[in-house]
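User: My instructor asked us to take a sequence, write out its structure as tokens, and then describe one feature of it. I'm not sure where to start. Here is the sequence I was given:
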Amino acid sequence: MFYIPRGPILDFKDKELVLFYFEELKKEAKKHHCLFIKFDPMIHVNDYKSYEANDNKYKDTDLYLNIFKEIGAQHHGFTINV
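Assistant: Let's start with the prediction itself. The structure tokens for your sequence are:
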């Protein structure tokens, strides 16, 4: 497993960059017989106080999720309790 905590640090709005980065990372991971790559980028999705969590998202969130889906990533939910 390759793990990138709170990363990678990229401009996630730049789809070409994200696709290129993960394409190259997958090649490197295969060289090391890696089964999967785990990452949890530090993307600010919502503002709320800890006692009033909600499902609202910023408009760019869906863009990021669609790009992640395109690279083959599986989204397992957002971190809500930090």
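For the description part of your assignment, you could build on this observation: The chain has one domain: 2-70. Try explaining in your own words what that tells you about the chain.
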